[in-house]
Amino acid sequence: MTEAIYIVGHKNPDTDSICSAIAYAELKKKLGISAVAARQGEPNPETKFVLEKFGVEVPELLTDGASKKVILVDHSDIGQSLDNLDQAEIVEIIDHHKIGDVTTPNPIFFLAMPVGCTATVVKTLYDYFGIEIPKNIAGIMLASILSDTVIFKSATTTDKDKKAAEDLAKIAGVEDMETLGMEMFKVKSDIAGKPPRELLFRDFKDFDMSGNKVGIGQIEVVDLSLLDEVKDSLYEEMKKVKEEGGYHSVFMMLTDIIKEGTELLVVSDDSGVVEKAFGKKVEDRSVWLDGVMSRKKQVVPPLEKAFS
Ligand code: MG
Ligand code: MG
Ligand code: MG
Q: What is the whole-number distance in angstroms between the Cα of residue 305 and the centre of ligand 3?
């Protein structure tokens, strides 16, 4: 038997990173290729809920890429990937973000599509190979799309995501996608009693913006007032993380999925970048960005421009 290929999503994994790794490992197995789904960290409460709901096991933990064959899903940034990635052999990348800074010595299969979710890309691969998607796998793929596209409300949503979700809902026997989506976001919104550091790193990504280390986290809730109690301690934690990690800026997107906007909390060496990026001054410690829900499409690009 050939050595297994590990399929793994980004650090601080979200539902898409974990479920797309599982779904793609399943497809590989059906194609006769030995593949193991992995995760880089503890599944968040939403992901746990989804895996339990559809009866799928939590994949194994993998944080070090040394001497491993790996397929990266849902990212292609070194900073978001396995430790010692330079000692790993990257054999494929399946993603829906901007192309990151990973390089390979050999040609590889690299499929990145400008869609709302990696699970949508994985779905097109199942279709391409003509492989049937198992019911429980369809369920977690659907959940990934609902999570990443914020129930189709995010600016990242495409017709391909909607079509894939409809197909997957049929296979999974999910009659009402909206209800499933709201169930998931209610689990996500349950932040009472959670330590600020956990909330900060639950969905947090590092970026290199013109040589500046920038961290951007996001918390998506059904009502921003749910965050009133934790906002002060979260802000203090952001300051600590900025110092410890040597960041130029640490941003937290507090996203209201019903009002469809984001309060951006800012800790920065130069909060002028926020005004440059979004045309609004940081008042006190944050700025309200109406209609902004997507880090990848509405926050990272303008910030990168402001830093350049
Ligand atoms: Mg992700
Ligand atoms: Mg994703
Ligand atoms: Mg997300």
A: 21
Return the ligand number nearest the Cα of 117.
2
107's tokens? 């040609």
Which of 286, 232, 233 shows the shortest CA–CA distance to 261? 286
Q: What is the CA radius of gyration of the chain?
A: 19
- Using an 8 Å Cβ cutoff, are 89 and 69 in contact? yes
pTM score, two decimals? 0.91
The ligand placed nearest to the CA atom of residue 203 is 3
In whole angstroms, what is the distance from residue 249 CA to residue 127 CA?
42
The Å distance, Cα 153 to ligand 3 centre, comes to: 12
Distance from residue 246's CA to the centre of ligand 2 (Å): 26
CA of 81 to the centre of ligand 3 (A): 16
Sign of CA dihedral 71, 77, 83, 89: positive
b/e string for 145-162 if b means 16 or more Cβ within 10 A?
bbbbbbbbebebbbebbb
How many Å apart are CA 21 and CA 301, to the nearest integer? Answer: 26
DSSP 57: P
Distance from the CA of 18 to the center of ligand 2, in angstroms?
10
Q: How far is the CA of 188 from the centre of ligand 1 (A)?
A: 15
- Domains (range + CATH), the chain: 5-186 (3.90.1640.10), 196-307 (3.10.310.20)
Q: How confident is the model at residue 1 (pLDDT cuts 50, 70, 90)?
A: very low
Does 169 or 191 have the greater pLDDT score?
A: 169
Burial class (CB in 10 A: 0-12, 13-18, 19+), 4: middle
